[in-house]
Each structure stands twice: as structure tokens, then as C-alpha cells.
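Hi! If you just cloned this repository, the fastest way to understand the data is to look at a raw example. We've pasted two of them here, unedited. The first protein comes first, obviously.
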Amino acid sequence: MTLRLGAIFDSLADEFEATLFADPGTLIDKLAPIEAAGMADLSFLNHPKYLNKLAASGAACVIVSPAMKDAAMARGGCIVVADPYRYFARVTQVWKQHHEPQEAASIHPSAFIDPSAQLAEGVSVAAFVCIGAGAVIGAGTRLGEHCVVGRGAVVGAHSRLAPRVTLGERCQLGERCILHSGVVIGSDGFGFAPNAGRWEKIEQLGAVRIGNDVEIGANTCIDRGALGDTVIEDGVKLDNLIQIGHNVHVGAHTAMAGCVGVAGSAQIGAHCTIGGGAVVLGHLRLADHVNVSASSVVTRSILKPGHYTGFFPIDDNAAWEKNAATLKQLHTLRDRLKLVEKQITQQRQVQTEEQPKTASNSTKEKS
């Protein structure tokens, strides 16, 4: 289904101050990256380092910043807006709304819904969904195939659960959330007490509370709290394959990339970013606006905003082994260095004490 360029532009006119330098009647077949876009495609360019791709692009229209306006107009059609990346994000939403309209709400006959569960107007329940006793499902929510909503759990209005999502008992999900396939909310936290060489399970009696407008990637797990709740605040974005331990608190609008691990009782501030594969150890605190690089291991609390990195750089194996061996000797080298510094300090003290005596002897000789 094609869309007129003018229709796309007009749909965002109330939200953005943008200018269209192209024929509004141009038909757009698809959205495409700038290097692969064809004569019926809409693309965008956000970073100046890719400016060299602009002139060669065959796109019908390119979304650019004011700084790139002249280069874009020399090439062809363009939309000029202060934040091309966010504008393009909204364009993708408009495109999806036109090409993937929601189906009418329905409840599949194979779904099990406990009689005490409450479903608001417009809820859609796919095949083999299970909704437990006392669960509450908000208006316009859509539950994909094989989803499980546990006893007493709450799903906010207009949220979307992809197939095979599990929301554990008493857990709460806010409004307009998106949970991708395989997400598990409310699994037991990793809590065990040592007992004569064996492990005694600590029952996890808390729940998980998730705010509004949260998106959680495929196969991510968020454990329920041991006593209190694990909390994910509004607007948090979690990628695939993330592990959030029990009693973790993640502040509003924080984003974490794939394979991040956050251990129990850590507190992550608002507007933080955590790169892929990074680890935050338990009981630590990250202030608001902390950015952690990919693969870093956070071993101490970070109380000031900023960008933090902590990992051993990659190298060819032979050089890496030599450097790793040197690292093991750092403690010994530090002790030796401290001893040398102490000896130098003592020598300087002796020299300082001897200088007045030498000066006094010289004065006596002259007399």
C-alpha cells in the first residue's frame, strides 16, 4: 500500500515544525535506509558523517536537519526538521498504523479465562491464552497466543503481549506497554540460604511492578522481589535477553541493550543507558543520567552522572596473555614502587638535615 508523501507530512504537522521541499503528491512505496532507497522510497539522514551517502541516494525524499538542507535540496526532495531521527521514528509509527491495522477485538474459544477475571472493553485474547483468578485486563489490551496472566495480575489498558509472554501472579503491568515473545515477568528471584553444604530456598514473596509505556524485548526475565517488589518505572526500554534480579529498581526512561545483567537489589537511576552485555552487581546504586559502555562490569556505586567504561581491551591473543600476566603482578609492582618511594623520601630527608651542618662548618672555616 502506497502513501502520499503529503499525507505522511500532514499527519505529523501538529507535532513537528518541519518543511517539505518535494511534491506532496509523490507516492511512497516503503521506508528504506538511505544507501538502499529507491525512487519511490522515503529515507532519513541524521548524522553528518554519513553525508557522503546523501548525494548518491536514489530516495524520493530524505528527512534531514537544517544543517543538511542545501545538500539535500541539491540532490532532490527532502523534509527539513530539527530532529530527523525522532521524526523518522514517528513516520515508522504512521506507516505501521496504515499497513497493519488492528483486527477487531475477539476472544478465541481455546482460551481459558477464570470466571473471576475482569476483562475491560475491547480486549483481544488469542488462542490458548490462560488468564488466572482475579486478574484484571485493561481496555484495548491484546494478548498473543499462549500468553499466561497469573492469579491477581494486572495488565494496563492498550498494552500488547506478544505470543508466549508470562505475567506472574500479583505482578502489575502499566498502560501502553509492549512485551515481546518469551518475556517472563515475576519468576522467582535467585535466593538460597546455605545449609550444611546444601541450599535452602528463600521463598520470593514480593511481586513486579512495571509502569506505563515500557517495552521489553524477547526472552527478557524480570524476577519478583524477595519481600518488597521489583520496580520498573515509566518509559523504560529493555532489549532482548536481559536479566533483572529480585528487588531491582529501574528509574524512568532508562534503556538497556541486549544481554545486560542486573543483580539483586541494585538501584538504577532515571535516564540511564546501559550498553549490551554490561553487568551491574547487586546492591549498587547508579545515579540519574549514568551511561555505561557495552561489556562493562559495574563493581561500585556510581553517584555522579557521566559516561563510564570498565573492560579489558581486545588484542591478539599473544599480546593479551602477556598483558594479563602483567596485571597479575601489579600488586607486587605496587609494593616495590612504594618501597622505592619510601627510600627516596628518606634519602631526601637525610640530605635536608645535612645541608645546615655543611653551611655552618663553612662559616666557621671562613672565620
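Ok, and the second one:
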Amino acid sequence: MEQIILHVDMDAFYASVEMRDDPTLRGKPLIIGSLPHERGVVATCSYAARPYGVRSGMNIKDAYRLCPQGVYMHPNFDKYKAVSRQLHEIWESYATAAESIALDEAYLDLTETAGDWETAREIARTIKRRTLQEIGLTCSVGVAYSKTAAKTASEEKKPDGYFEIRTAEDFVNLIIDRDVRVLYTVGAMTAEKLHGAGIHTVRDIRAQPDAVIRLLGKQGRWITRIAQGIDERRVEPYRPEEAKSIGRELTFQKDVDDFAFLQDVLVLLALSVENRARRVGLHGSGLTLKVTYADMKGVTRSSMNLFHDDAASIWQEAVRLLDQIERRPIRLIGVSLGHLAPEEERQLSFADCFEDEADGQKAALRRLLDGLQARYHLDFAGHLQQLYHTETLHKTVEYMRKHRP
């Protein structure tokens, strides 16, 4: 039986939520991300901001140059996650399998629940109607024979659109004379390579498949297949245990060259990483430290010396890795756990055999937090949970940077 896959994508999700909750923002060029005086990028923007050239992923200062009259806001991820849960509850009720791509985006397998294209079309209309009536937001929906085609279809009539692509022939006919970036996985850098080789459109890819493969290797083989409309991937529900790593990183508003301060920041990152792993019941036995210097050069250091993945142990190993890198101004720092496995599969270490080990880990964490409180006059009592929120973490680190002894 041929697949029937629906791709649903919210329209300017973060901005739309904010406009729903504050109608005075409607019709204005609303830009969600960093503020103009900060470092960072545009997370999303309203459709009213797009005629000015503002786009997701753009440097915030470029966005301000293009649209100084815009309304700039930090994202409220707690709010967006709550709305996302409501959205996915609606969407997933119509599918035998659902693959969440982001807070505001998902693939739904309608092959069995719909059974035919007319029913799939009615399900799509129902999803759009319920999303608007129950959540107060619009979405764009594509229905197609494959995941690539469904995603392409959902983009075709944005915002608040619907489009369907029934066959590989329909897909190819739609995109054949469009730029190569219309294809899934072809980003700016890949497109630049293809353009440099004289391959500008999907038609060019189809005419020169061997050249694409020589240029891009394995990715090139994938691109030549989807340029022919071939994509046999199934909708795969996300399972936390299949994650390859769990991490947290942050960008400083001003470059940091004080490595003692960086050690203090690593305490907060270690807490956040531990919390994320515990939430999904995963244990990590490897650790990676990521750093981006002021000149945008990035380095990583990894270790398999992590015998415990509590916050204190993560911090200790991260500090050891930090000591291995060149000491010059740093723009971004991050920590991630790797080699993940469900908690019940964790192998006991020698230290696990001692009853007071957990107490020792808690005491080590308490000492780290006491040190931060003493140096920066912070009060973590009853407030640790808030540190796991992205905006609170960034604000805390910026406060620490400005008040470091």
C-alpha cells in the first residue's frame, strides 16, 4: 500500500503565539530572538517582518539594520512548549505514527487511518480547523506520498495553506526548474558547492547525477534520489533513548577570557545537562566540551572518563577538558553527554558499591553552589528548577559575568 504522509508546520510559531496573547502586536514586524544590542540570531519573525528581508537564523544586528522599527522580544520557551504539547495532542490523534521534528512541526502517517486521498484531505482540513479553533493559531499542511514531498507541500502555500503531492511525477514536475535548495538537506553550503559546479536547478541534478555524487559523496547519492522523487523513509516516532547526545550551550554577550569564570559557568551547564538526561531516563558515559573562540574558530574536547553523570562529576570532567584548550577569549561554551543508554542499563562502577556515594555527590554539588552564591551573591534555594529554563540560564550567566569578582 502506498504511503500517505501529512506534514504539519505552524506559521511563524513563536511570533504567532505572542500575537495571539497580545493582539496589539498583530500586523507589526515582530522579531523573536536576541535583542538588537545583544549577540544572537533571529529565532523567528512574523510575516510582517519578512518584506524587510528579516529571516530566521539571521544575525540580530543585521535584522535591526533591515528593520529598526520592528518589535524585538526574547523567546518564552516555557510558553511555546506548553502550546506545543497541545498541538501535538491534536495532531497525533489522527495518525498511526507521528514523528515530531520540532515544537511546531511533525510528520503524521495517515496510510492506515485515512486509507485514501480524499479521507487524508479531510483529516488535513480537520487538523487545520482544530488548530485554529482550539489553540488560536494557523498551520500549513502538506499531504503527499513521501516525507520529502509532504514537507515540500506544506511550504507551498504558506501561511495557512494546504497542498498535496500524490506521486513522484507530480513532485518532480513541481520543483524541476527550482533552485537546488528546494530539496531536503540541501542547505546554503551544499547549494554553494553545487552552484560552483554549474548545477543550479533540480533539472541540472537530474541531468548530471554522477557529477553530484562525485562532488558530495553519500549526500550526493541521497540528493540525486530525491531529485527523482524517490524517498521511501517511514514516519519514525521519536524515542529519547535513541538520542546520540544531550547537551547545553550558551553564547556570551561579550567574549570571556577569565577561565575561572568559565569554570563557574560550567557548574550551571552541568546542572542543566544532568536535568535533561534524568528527565528522559538516560545515562551518559562520555562527555564533550565545545568552545567557540572570539574569531569563530571552534574546538571540542571529549572524554570517556565519566564514571558518574551527576552534575558535580560532569563539572569536574568538563573543567579537566577546559584546562586542555588554548586560553584566549571565548564566545560560546557548551557541554554534552554522549554514549547514552537507558538508566537501567548503566554498569555499576566501583564507587557505586558504597552507600554514601550519592551523599558524596550531593555534597560536592552543594559545595559548588555555595561557591557560586558566595562569589556572585546568588540564592539558589528553591530556584534551581528555574535555571533549566533557557532565558533564566542566560540571564543568570550575564549577571555573573557583570558581577564576577
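That's it. A detail worth noticing about the second one: The two ends are 67 Å apart (CA to CA).
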